[in-house]
Fold this protein.
Amino acid sequence: MHLPSVGIDAIALALPQKFISLDELALARGVPPEKYQTGLGVEKMAIPGFEEDPVALAVNAARQLFRSSGCSPQQIGLCLVGTETPVDYAKPISIYLHRMLGLPSSCRVFETKHACYGGTAGLFTALEWIVSGSAQGRSALVVCTDIACYPLQSPGEPTQGAGAIALLLSANPRLLAIDPASSGVYSHEVYDFWRPLQHKNAIANGPLSIQSYLEALTNAYKNWKERNPQHAPLLRSCYHVPYGKMARKAHQHRLSLEKKNLSGSAHKEEIETSLVFPAQVGNMYTGSLYLALASLLHHEAPLLEGSWIGLFSYGSGCTAEFFAGKVSEQAGSTMKKLHVEYAFRNRQKIDIATYESIRLQAEHKAVPLVAESIPIEADLSQNVVFRGFDQSERRLYQNVPLHTKPANTNR
Ligand code: CAA
């Protein structure tokens, strides 16, 4: 099939520095650890500190992208941020990125939202911008950034997480070529998961959300099949991963639509490497599908060069898209240079009491007022932290040195 040569050229991630063990959370909640490990498929959950807000996470992922990909901020003509945990009703996270990354003034910036689909909305907007010719040789930056939060002790608690993923989109992509015109789409209004204005935590109707996810997959996949009846086989699949078990269920469900033999673990290899990183982080909402993609390419890119993979994005509420991507011939060597595994370095395990006190502080403690504004340079060699508000409730950020401790294996 003819494939326009556009897609994902590079990928980078930023994770909170702290995490908890789901075994320890299970113990604290009086639940058998196998329920979280096997029943949900999660091992660790990223816990953002106060200074790791969605803006700081997004900037840190994007700065890492520029450091590792060799792309310069001057090459960016479109910067989109997908998020369902925005920091302001009016001011988008993308404009904070514009300043803190030093993007050109002739760069279009905005935020995209539809629950966990928000990043995919940005991705397709950016691909179509390139295919249309508007890019004129420039690249697009799409960043997915979120903090997934449910009430303490609720069924959703073990499916929280946080982090940001930055995607560089361009012509002649080094990782994954995607045809934006051939995806399968499904939308349908439903109250499966929502967060009313002013609520810090999301509200989920768990069983309905699972049912809605699978129904959306059925219909988006059918739509994709109708549009691509002769498509080459998809060797691997990446799904939106609220927790690993949901993606495994989704894959089984998709195979059953194909009436494939589901016995044994024959199809395990089609999905398992995509779930390694998500099991260490939890739900990243908009970034979850792309964390799965990063995990797949980190583990298997050389093997998959020249092959097709399937991707499924689900946004509660709901809208969904199923699409295919062709792994580029230089994906293996590119992934080596990108070092996505760096995001797991220096993470620190905290105990459940510390996690609970971080959560309670976030819910009850006022955000500090910082008397003076802090000048912030677009210094790509540093990370960024959130410091608080000034007298006019403007958000203040500060550059801080990157961690330099050697990698530990405490992923
Ligand atoms: N050993 C092994 N497995 C066990 C077990 C044990 N001791 N005890 C229970 N389990 C299994 C259950 O059998 C079940 O597996 P199946 O789904 O295969 O049946 C699994 O653990 C979960 O247990 P429950 O069915 O009892 O469910 P729960 O009350 O713990 O809630 C949840 C699970 C609904 C996912 C809840 O965590 C939740 O509401 N999460 C937030 C919503 C969500 O993530 N929805 C996903 C789809 S929507 C979406 O994807 C968008 C998004 O990002 C939010």
